[in-house]
Amino acid sequence: MKLNAGTLVTMNDEREVREEAHVVVEDGEIVEIADGHASGEDVVDATDEVVIPGLVNCHTHMYALPIRGAPLTVSPQSFYEALVDIWWEVDEAFTMEDARLSSLGSCAEMLEAGVTTFCDNYSGPNTLPGALDAVAEGVAQTPIRGMITFETTARNSEEEAFDGIEENQRFIRDGESEYDRIEGHYCLHTLFTNTEPVVEECASRATDDDRPIQIHLEEGLVDVHKSIEEYGMRPVPALESMGFFDADVIAAHCVHSTDREIEILAEHDVGVAHNPYSNVNNAVGIANVEKMEEEDLTIGIGDDGWDPDMFETMRTAVGIHKLKKNNPSGFDMAKALEWATIGSAEVLGMEDAVGSIEPGKRADFVTLDLGPNPVLPGSAPYYVVSAASRGDVTRTIVDGEVVYERGGRVRGVDDEDLQAVGEASEALWDRL
């Protein structure tokens, strides 16, 4: 397969942008990037379009899809109330079929919006054991690549938390081998919804299996207050004292992390999954990405299950960080595209395979029709972030195969599947 590009935004180390180039792919891997346009039957023609790497969503919750449009009667006044009144009720109501269909529907949406790699956290205590098999079945119906996990929580009981840890290890050791593009990992919901023995056991298992752990870290102030109450210190030093950072950790949010806590995260090479759109929706605050960058923390970007359009998530990042400084030039817009590609890939430990367009990596691409204006190499990344949306995605390509074209369906998904997703959502609303 060869891909002709009008403008090729590589996101390689030099952040190179090339005009009138083509990419050569063999067995799903990029083998060459050359000047000029290729010809032949195996050419995908994007000569009038912008080509970017497949987007990487480094923190999502696919099981959030069924709640869109739900006739909820609660009006939470805080992040903690939103957890208690909405999300924990949803968790308890989920079935195996909900797990499968929400994953299927979410993966179809992500591919339509140019996301080719994701990292998910699923929570449904009444679907244990076997929950991740249902999630994986939904994911595998599509051609996307992803990391999945069960979200460990002791909010109901410590026993339930250990069941969640066991589910993750079971899938890693016995389940994931059935899938080409799906890997398991570990997850702690938060420090405040778990206990010290659970934290220590999760870290131990993740280290043994050489897998990362995701955690929602200081998303809301409840995490901070509960940690001080229980351990006499804030969440990051508390987790450090438990040996949590001996594992490879992906910390989502970090909205309320202090400068010293960010320094501790940097000392342990923690990757940060920034979720700007979610943080706005939950009104929790704005993460101090400036301090994170000062400490050389790796930052990626996720949608936290809120918005299937990662371009909107990128624009939200631009907006909130400019607004925080009251400066329209206070944030480099191209940084958001970096976070959504190579940054997220590095957070997930997948930078050798995805996140940029260069020889040796998997052939994951997104082609964009940005309209009649010229696309100049110097401004192309800015143009993508400021103007693109999921509606501008003309093709999504995974491993050198076109798996979605605008106006059609994602490969492996049909109208009947999507109808089933909607019907399951409506049934879930009735149970809630």
TrEMBL record:
Q: Which residues form the Amidohydrolase-related domain?
A: 50-403
Which Pfam families does the UniProt entry name for this protein? Amidohydro_1
Q: What is this protein called?
A: N-ethylammeline chlorohydrolase
Query: Which key words are in the record?
Result: Hydrolase
Question: Which Gene3D superfamilies does the annotation name?
Answer: Metal-dependent hydrolases, Urease, subunit C, domain 1
Among InterPro entries, the record links this protein to: Amidohydro-rel, Metal-dep_hydrolase_composite, Metal_Hydrolase, MTA/SAH_deaminase
Gene Ontology molecular functions: hydrolase activity, acting on carbon-nitrogen (but not peptide) bonds
